[in-house]
Structure formats: structure tokens, C-alpha cells
Design brief:
Layout lengths: L12 H43 L5 H55 L20
């Protein structure tokens, strides 16, 4: 068999490329979120300008403002409806989880005493909260 010869470095050009790539990735990690938000803001402003140019001369400012207000009120109404729905679902799930904890507490206590009959209670209530004196 022939012996393999180690590859020769190309004089540091490869190291510079790696360094440059690492620095660029570091900058993207550091400022990526800011760049994305800046890009979104610039895009939104550009689209608003295009929209205003499209409406120029075809409709009055009053009509434009009323249509924007009507769309905003629908958006706000939808947002409130979604918020109320999510809050209701959260409260339902919270109550359901608490009832499940209460239901399973007795079984867990029974299993723990089977494993270790000399086990003492930790004092945690059936709701999973600590005693009033421990708070």
C-alpha cells in the first residue's frame, strides 16, 4: 500500500474564510432579531405608502379613515373574543387539573404507604399546595 500524504494548507486563506463565516454568523445571532423587526417595519411602511398612493384621488381622506376604523374595530373585536375564549379554556383546564390532582392524591398516598409503611405525610394538601404555616 502507498502511504497517504497529509494535505497541505493553502496558506491561511481557508482560516480567514472560516473566521469570516464565524463572525458573520455571530453578527446574525446577535442582531438577527433586530434586523427582522427592522425589515418588517420597513416593509409595512412601504406597503402603507403604496396603499395611500393607490387611494390618492379616488377616495376622500374621510372615507379612507372610516374604512380603516371599521377594519380596526373588527380586528379589536376578534382579538377580544379570542382572548375571552382562551381565558375561559385556561380556567376550565386549571379546574380540571386540580380535580384530577385531588382524585389521584388518595391513590398515590396508598401506593406510597404500601412501599414504605413508616412514611410520614409531607403536609401537602390534596390540591397540591403547601400548608398555610409553610408559606
Amino acid at each position: 500500500m502507498t502511504e497517504r500524504k497529509p494535505k497541505k494548507s493553502k496558506g491561511g486563506g481557508d482560516a480567514f474564510g472560516r473566521w469570516l463565516a464565524q463572525e458573520l454568523i455571530s453578527l446574525v445571532r446577535q442582531f438577527g432579531n433586530t434586523l427582522i423587526w427592522g425589515g418588517v417595519c420597513i416593509y409595512t411602511i412601504a406597503e402603507a405608502g403604496t396603499t395611500l398612493r393607490a387611494f390618492a384621488g379616488r377616495t376622500s381622506i374621510a372615507n379612507l379613515l372610516l374604512s380603516i376604523a371599521a377594519n380596526v374595530s373588527i380586528t379589536v373585536g376578534i382579538s377580544i373574543a379570542i382572548s375571552v375564549t382562551m381565558t375561559g379554556l385556561y380556567l376550565y383546564e386549571y379546574r380540571r387539573h386540580r380535580k384530577t390532582r385531588q382524585r389521584l392524591t388518595g391513590r398515590i398516598t396508598q401506593l406510597e404507604t404500601i412501599i414504605d409503611p413508616s412514611r410520614t405525610s409531607s403536609g401537602i394538601s390534596t390540591e397540591g399546595t403547601t400548608r398555610i404555616g409553610d408559606q
